[in-house]
Every structure is written in structure tokens, then in C-alpha cells.
Amino acid sequence: MTSGAMSRVACTIHGIMSRLLGILLLVAGANCMYASNSAVVDLRPNNFDNLVLNSDHIWVVEFYAPWCGHCQQLTPEYDKAATALKGVVKVGAVNADEHKSLGSKYGVRGFPTIKIFGLDKKPEDYNGPRSAAGIVDAALNAASQKVRKVLGGKTSGGESKSKDSKDVIELTDENFDKTVLNSEDMWLVEFYAPWCGHCKNLAPEWSTAATELKGKVKLGALDATVNTLKASKYEIKGYPTIKFFAPGKKDADSMQDYDGGRTSGDIVNWALEKLAENIPAPEVVQITSEKKLRAACEDKPICVVSVLPHILDCQSDCRNGYLKTLSTLGEKYKKKMWGWVWAEAGAQSHIEDALEIGGFGYPALAAVNIKKMKYSLLKGSFSYDGINEFLRDLSYGRGGTAPLKGAQLPVIIETTPWDGKDAEPPQEEEIDLSDINLDDKDEL
């Protein structure tokens, strides 16, 4: 072979090898979306358990497919997050298209899927923004929870959000309908994400508002990153999002957006205004059992207790007149969220004794604070004007109070509810005197 021919063969081989090398580089580049010097660790079945599950580090792991457009868009942000978290939280990526066993093991059904392997190595889905800042926030939150758990303190973020206040009710996909929709109460529900900074800022305000509104409006919190069914149902697209559920009967669509401020004062004022718009006038309940009294009064700031004349002294028209006056005043003061109850004279003697009502005759009325075990007695006329003046003074902090006699809830006697009818006077027994001889005299 001539030297020229050998030269041409060498050039041909060199060209083929160059093309093969190019193809191999392209294939390698297609299968690994992160450069060799990236802070993102390439995870595979042969190193995953050792690096991730058997380590003490928090890991953020992306499951991707090289052909996935969303994965390609995420790459620079994920790379940036890995660089920012270097030395604090480990960041890795799995080519789940190539390593299908890993994707299947962790329930990966779409790309990209990001999971956080925390202290107990139970992976949690990351559903936050596909940005470096969002990923970093979630990773730092997981790291913070690990540190606090090791120290024996409370975890931070969403996990402890509803536990920090006994008055904030933790909601889930499973208990939401029963707790909120099947309730007659008014609800404010916060949909939050554990990694969300604004949610963390809201947490103490939400807790304080829940305590101030206790007995009037219920406040709940739902982790929308875990309870995705309700988050999807109510189209939650940002965190925190607050939804309002009016008092009374509800259905799945009984919801309005909350458009108030984010301080506890803003939340309380907004809730009370809504409550005033929606609340019905309170029922004036007859005290026939302790259960009835507690249901009407226990959680109320004040309970208005009336003792009406016995039905024989004041028949149905008379009694209904008094009840109408009380109902009208209940409507007037409904924003106060007071309880309204009544008993027939003599039926609940322990209540009359505790309120020292007996000396003023019937009807009588007292305003009672069950929590403080204090009361104030109406000394004016039992009329609309007289009771209104008495209650108005109480509203402004005027008027004297006295401790409830015995400093505890009086014993309640089980009685039959009034049937709304007049009462028949007791009939005197007729004595037959026909067989008595009035002329007979007893002999001593």
C-alpha cells in the first residue's frame, strides 16, 4: 500500500472515531442532564441506598427523564439550588427513564418529580415553585425540622403549625367534610405549605386569632402539599390561601375567598363582621337539663337567664309575651354571641338560689358569665326598655357584679319542656256529705 493510500485510510479511521466519540458524548449528555462538576449528585440504583438512605444528611432528589421538556427547564434552577445548599443539604438527581426501578420504588409517575428525604428518610413530595428559591426554602425547612427534633423541641413550619395553638384545628382530606362542611359553625380555613415563608409569618397571627374567636368562629389549617384533594377542589394556587365557610348548612361549594389582612386583629375583625352578617337570632332555650344549659351558655361570654312566672300565674299569652320580648332583644344583641335561657318559677330552685332571684318576684333576669362564675341581676322593670338598658350598661362595662353563689354551676333538675299550652288549675276534691247526719253529736 502506498503512503498516500495509507494516509487516506488513517484519515478515514480518524473521521469514524471522531464521529463515534461525538455520538457517545451526545448520548452521555442526553442521559445525564447535569455536568460532572455540578453540585447535583448523579444517583443510581448502585449508590442510592448508601448515599441517601444510609446517610445522616437531608437529601433533595429529582427524578427526571432526559427527553422531558419541564426537566430541561428545571435544570438551571435545580443546579443553582444545589450550589446554594452545598455543605448544608445534599442535592441529587435520578435518571428515572434509565433507572426505572428507582422511579417505581418511590412511586414516580411524572417528570420532574422532586422528593425530600428527611430525618426518618421517608420521602415527602415537593410541590412548591420550580425555582431555586423555592427548593432552597423547602430544603432548609427540612433541615430545621431535623435539628429541632434532635434537640427534642418542636418542629417548625407546617408540621407544628396547627399544634402550636390548641385552638387551631388541624384539617386533612379525610376529616375536612365531617369537620367543616357538616358543621353549623362558621369557619376560616388556611391552606398552607410547610416551606412557605409567608405561611410561617402568618402562623402566630392565625393562632392568636383562633384563641380570640374561640366559641364564635372556628379556624383551621390544612397542609395543601399533603392533602392535595382538598387543595385541588378549592383551586389553591398560592400559599397561604384563606377560605371562608359561612355558618349554617354547607355543601362542597360553600366557600368564599377571604380578602382581609394578615394580622390577628384584621382576621378577628373580618370574621366578626362576617359572623354578624350571617348569624341568626339566638333561640331562647328553656332550661330542662344540664345539657341544654351548657349547650346554650357554656362557650358564650354572657348568658341571659330569665325566670318566668309559673304557668298558673301567667298563662300562655302572658308567657309568650315575655318570650317575645326576650327574642327581640336576642336579635338586637346577636352580634354579642350571648346565650339566652329561661326557666319556670320554682322549676330550677338551685339556679334561683345561686342568682338570689327570689327576693324580687317574677319575672326575674340575670346576666351570667359562666367562665368567671359572676352575675349581674336586673333590678329594673322586666320590659323591653328595662332589660335593654340593663344589657346596654353591661356592654359598656357598667353595673355591678357578684360571685355566683357556691362558685360553681348550680344543680339542674330534669324537667319536661313546656308544651306551649295553658295550664288547668288543680281541681278540688269533691267530698260526698250525703251520708253524714249533721244532728249527731260526738259523745265524750
Can you describe what's shown?
It is a single chain. The protein is elongated. 33% of the residues are buried. Helix 3 (69-84) crosses helix 5 (132-151). The chain has 444 residues and is an alpha/beta fold. The model is unreliable at 1-30 and 153-164 (pLDDT under 50). The strands form three sheets. It has a six-stranded mixed beta sheet, sandwiched between helices. It has a five-stranded mixed beta sheet with strand order 1-3-2-4-5. Strands 6-8-7-9-10 form a five-stranded mixed beta sheet. It contains 14 helices and 16 strands.
Tag the structure with descriptive keywords:
alpha/beta, disordered N terminus, 5-stranded mixed sheet, 16 strands, 444 residues
Mean pLDDT: 84
> What multimeric state do the chains show?
single chain
Largest sheet: 6 strands, mixed
Low-pLDDT residue spans: 1-30, 153-164
Helix content: 25-40%
Q: From the helix content, strand content and strand pairing, which structural class follows?
A: alpha/beta
